[in-house]
Amino acid sequence: MTRGLPPFVGLSLGVVLALASAWIAPARAQDGTSPVPPSTAIPAAPTPRGDAMPGASKVAALVDSLKNPEVWRAYRSRFVTEQGRVVDTANGMISHSEGQGYGMLLAVAANDRATFERLWGWTRANLMVRSDALMAWRWEPAKRPAIADLNNASDGDILVAWALTEAAEAWDEASYRVAARRIAVEIARKAILFKDRNGALLLPAVSGFSAAERADGPLINLSYWVFPAFARLPAVAPEFDWAALTNSGLNLLRRSRFGPSKLPTEWISLKGDEPRPADGFPPLYSYNAIRIPLYLVWAGIGRPSDYEPFVALWSGPDRERLPIVDTADGRTVESLSESGYTALSALLLCDRRGTPLPDGFGRPQAGENYYPTTLHLLAMVALQMRNLSCQAR
Prior knowledge:
Elements: H1 10-24, H2 26-30, H3 69-79, E1 95-96, H4 97-109, H5 113-126, E2 138-139, H6 154-171, H7 174-190, E3 192-193, E4 201-202, E5 219-220, H8 227-230, H9 242-255, E6 268-269, E7 276-277, E8 284-285, H10 291-299, H11 304-314, E9 322-326, E10 331-336, H12 342-353, H13 370-385
Antiparallel strand pairs: 1-2, 3-4, 5-6, 6-7, 8-9, 9-10
């Protein structure tokens, strides 16, 4: 999704939204004429436990991986409404499919089925308003209608499908499994180009990012590759090659090392022979792309060299802030200062170097916004699921 950014990159966001409005507009016209009608979106019913591809069953269970109940209660009280809406506190109190997906994952991790059901109920009622099983990406409480754009965000859809898959296994609930399958099938059919010359491509949304819709298309965002989800979705949609997405994501990451920092930009064009920063966007490693190392560590995939640019960036002298880097010249243009962001660097350096965790890793700070706090809890879950042991310093 195109998430609201901190004030220091507000100008860039204005450019992003102006451009995005032109790309995403076709979704409103096309959504009602989907080439995959909902009635044919499920080729066959899933088995009671799903047919996982080789290796998928070895993935650690998400349930009970958030070990500190006080951390979850604090998160729930700050960001989850009684109706089950996850509130983005730094972005006009809006909600989006990504936030609902993260909230649902964390509810499973906390083994909190009641909150999970509230989150899923609000998501069904308010975001699943398209003609298919995907979600509208953004819900704005101050506007009517609250959804002005029916386009989806593929990462949000993946997160919700993954959360439902985990919930179905954790609580043996068939309805969650069926819902997960519906969403996963639609993602695979509408947002993934399995036969692209670059390997399987995950488009950021159904509309607006393909070669037919952009002069520099197809356009990708590597932070939408939710690597740990790809080992779990075969349990509900085994007929699709989810492993191909893992392979393509790693390959594209290795080819998207831009400038002296060797970091990927937020938005990447695959128009030519090699990936390049997309037209019309600042060539930044920034607010979205900081999730790439989180997903790599969480999934436990890749070569040591895949992690090196992130380790180099996040092991510098100023480890209390995450740098926003202009990949054109390797310059730090600003930093993300809320402490929740640094849980990502702590997780990465624990995994790669065995660096002791900072004292506050297990205690997210009160008063921080939705996004850094969510990333902090996700890093805690990833640490537990990977069984990483780096004693606090």
